[in-house]
Amino acid sequence: MTVTRQDFEAAIAAYWGAKELQREQSAIKNAVGAGTAGSVRGGKHFDAIATLLAKFFLDTGYPSAGIRVTKSQGLELPGYYRPQKQWDLVVVHEDVLVAAFELKALGGPSYGNNYNNRVEEALGSAVDLRRAALAELYPKEKPWLGYFFVMQDGEESRRPVKTTRGALPVDGIWHGTSYQDGFGIFCERLMAERLHDAVCYVTSSAEDPKPTEPVESLDWRHFSAAINARLTYLKDLGIPG
């Protein structure tokens, strides 16, 4: 069976369903602070998306034991600037890092509070692992990295964001961009610098979960094609055996 566009849209809808449920549970338990902290910290809202991505590898014949989607399975991978970092979905087969995925989101109402954090997380994770590969901590096949990002669609995320007048002028590309625009530029540059091998960037909301893909090269079609290309490449090398 293949992973379809319908599967992708269903996973995004499930993301919002789990996110809302988690917010309600957090409120009942009074376990976290104000705002959306509970739904962001819990992580369970990405289960459907992680399962969707895992299906690519299951359908290709990878043993389920090597497809890691929970902390108990061990999601940590070695780094260079730190001992290890936990990813969100890791596929390993006979000591080959088949793929590692980072699944992240940014929601309102205060998009600016976490925007830079998301940028720095994605950069740090990729640079650390790529440098670890150069240090031969991944001695077999070159690691493959995927980044899946959901930005909550809303008026605040579509509105142009002013840049602060600093010591030196910013790159003109950022003038007049919204958070949605800016993250698209960031993801395109992640790909251009080959820090990630594939990026899927979507905007969506609980009210209208059908995903919008602001940048064609970062849409689901390109993302799934990149995963399949990785699978074909390794298959031609006899992986999995």
Report what the structure shows.
The protein has helices spanning 5-29, 37-42, 47-59, 111-134, 155-158, 179-192, 220-236; strands spanning 67-68, 76-78, 84-86, 89-93, 96-106, 145-152, 198-204. With 241 residues, the protein is of the alpha/beta class. The strands form 2 sheets. A 5-stranded mixed sheet has the order 1-4-5-6-7, with helices on both faces. Strand 4 and strand 5 form a beta hairpin. Helix 1 runs antiparallel to helix 3 (47-59) and helix 4 runs parallel beside helix 6 (179-192). The two termini are 20 Å apart.
Q: Strand portion, in percent?
A: 15-25%
How far is the N terminus from the C terminus?
20 Å
Strands ordered across the widest β-sheet: 1-4-5-6-7
Global mean pLDDT? 90
Tell me, briefly, the overall form.
globular
Percent in helix = 40-55%
Quickly count the helices: 7
Radius of gyration over all CA atoms, rounded: 18 Å
- Major β-sheet, in short? 5 strands, mixed
DSSP E strands, number: 7
Strand-pairing-aware structural class:
alpha/beta
Question: SSE order, as H and E?
Answer: HHHEEEEEHEHHEH
In brief, what are we looking at here?
Helices cover 43% and strands 16% of the residues. The protein has helices at 5-29, 37-42, 47-59, 111-134, 155-158, 179-192, 220-236, and strands at 67-68, 76-78, 84-86, 89-93, 96-106, 145-152, 198-204. A five-stranded mixed beta sheet has the order 1-4-5-6-7, sandwiched between helices.
List keywords for this structure.
alpha/beta, 241 residues
